[in-house]
Amino acid sequence: MNEQASANAQASRFGAWLDHHGFSIVASLGRLLRKPWATLLTVGVMAVALALPLGLWVVMQNLSRLGGEVQSSRDVAVFLKPEIDAARAQAIAATLRARGDVAKVELIAPEQALQQLRARDDLAAAIDALGEEAARAALPSVLRVSPRGDELLLAESLKALPDAERVQHDALWRERLDAWLRFGGRAVLVLAALLGLGALLVVGNTVRLDIQSRREEIGVLQLLGASDGFVRRPFLYLGAWYGLGAGALALGVLTLAWLALREPLADLAARYGSSFALQGLPPLPALAVLAAAGLLGWLGAGVVTGHYLRQTRPVER
């Protein structure tokens, strides 16, 4: 009988705990909606603090993708001597494919190179003036070699080929891009930490003002024996609502920026013969941003309410 009573009491306490959570969620949201302008100001400041590092991170991701699309910059171009015919060029390509430091070899015949040059408007007229036969005779066979390891070592070894007229390897700009991307990634982390701390302070100060306005109510609850968790819970959800609102607004701002920049950037890339398109934030990272923003608001409210409760806790004699 006692066990049954104990189980009923535990179930009742758990039900009351769930009810208070539900009440705190709804009540905290109601407090935000009753003061829309103050809420909008707080959410707006937090949204700017979140949107800046998030936007920079999206830019870095697009630059990384651009770097991946120009992977051919790692390739080493071997221009064979003009007297090398197609059969000999095929044999050289097969020999290079068997090397351990070579991932892929693509043979570009003079006919194929001529077609690629003719596709460019600025060179088509020059080819017509020179004559197709003369232009084809002036173009050598080219081997585009993709390295399996260090492309610099591969380029040096390919220069020793007796059939190579010239070896071209222009990867300096890509190495600089990689260095800038590494620096940008570190800068994003630092900026996110600083602005995240700023957002934490903003929501903490806002919750502090709300606590001050409800000081008498909190005092009555403490006199009635309410636990710290009971008193803290509505303010935690208040901070979480601030964070979720700021995260949603930051995502909205980034979406508008993406819509505004997508078409001009695509047009600019097309003029350079590229199909690069600006990508926004995928769904899963967007959900992660919302969760992180809500957690940030929750933590800010938790720090402030915890400090207040420690200051107002009665001193035991």
Strand order of the largest sheet: 2-3-1-4
Q: Radius of gyration over alpha carbons?
A: 33 Å
Ends apart, CA distance between termini: 38 Å
Question: pLDDT under 50 segments (min length 5)?
Answer: none
Broad shape: elongated
What percent of the residues sit in helical stretches (DSSP H or I)? Answer: over 70%
Helical segment count: 11
Major sheet size, sense and barrel closure: 4 strands, antiparallel
Strand content: 5-15%
Task: Tally the beta strands.
Answer: 4
Indicate the mean pLDDT. 78
Category by helix and strand content: alpha+beta
Question: How many distinct domains?
Answer: 2
Question: What this model shows, in words?
Answer:
The radius of gyration is 33 Å and the shape is elongated. With 317 residues, it is of the alpha+beta class. The protein folds into two domains: 20-69 and 175-312, no CATH class; 82-162, Alpha-Beta Plaits, CATH 3.30.70. It has helices at residues 2-34, 36-69, 86-97, 110-118, 121-130, 132-138, 151-158, 172-213, 215-223, 228-271, 283-312, and strands at 76-80, 102-108, 142-147, 164-168. It has a four-stranded antiparallel sheet with strand order 2-3-1-4. Helix 8 packs parallel to helix 11. Residues 190-309 form the ABC3 transporter permease C-terminal domain.
